[in-house]
Description:
alpha/beta, 2 domains, two-stranded antiparallel sheet, 10 helices, 10 strands, about 35% helix
Amino acid sequence: MLYLLSPAKTLDYDSEAPSLRATMPRFLDQSEELAEVMKKMKPVQLEKLMSISSKLAALNAERFDDWRSDYSRPEARQSILAFKGDVYQGLAVEDWQTEDFSEAQKSIRILSGLYGILRPLDLMLPYRLEMGTKLSTPRGKNLYDFWSDTLTKNLNKDLNAKGDAVINLASNEYFSAVQPKDLKAPVITPVFKDWKNGKLKIISFYAKKARGMMAGWAVQKKITRPSDLKRFNGGGYKFDKLLSDETNWVFTRAES
């Protein structure tokens, strides 16, 4: 199975990281195309394009200025160690063994506006370029046009066997870059909801963290059948059969 995650805006290139093997992203030529477009933009243009502060715009202008495709360690870091956001808090890789990272390399795919798809051990330079950015390139008017069917074709190559599935733990913004109808496996989207004041709600922070928890749990348990995901109970969430359908699996948690 493949587990799809979104990247995080928050990055960590300073903390001590475990010694792991590293791989390189598969679409560096395309990433270089995007970086070249971004390098031509002034900070004030990035501020408007990406709806970020002037401070962040200046930082990312500097990042794209320094970006090149022949990078290596120590300036780069494995993607699963570089991203630090709610989803990655849920992954809790600080508790993983070396074999868990190897398992994740086979099953986790991180969708990226700059890199297209990142495997957990792929080295990446710090960047910010969200998939929903309306960046005009020779390939189209936005990043969805740019990546087109590249991501879907690559996911199909990584799907292992008949009966496999794609587990969509990514946000709508990122999953929209994939063409589900062209995938050679069914897509299952886990949905995490909390009881709050007598109503079921998706609470963003908790839902994002739960997505990471599920991916981490599946990696460590070496889950191979989609149906086994229904056993997930991380953070107190439990599968709700009545609220679920064939493709949307709802997990609920009682109000604390």
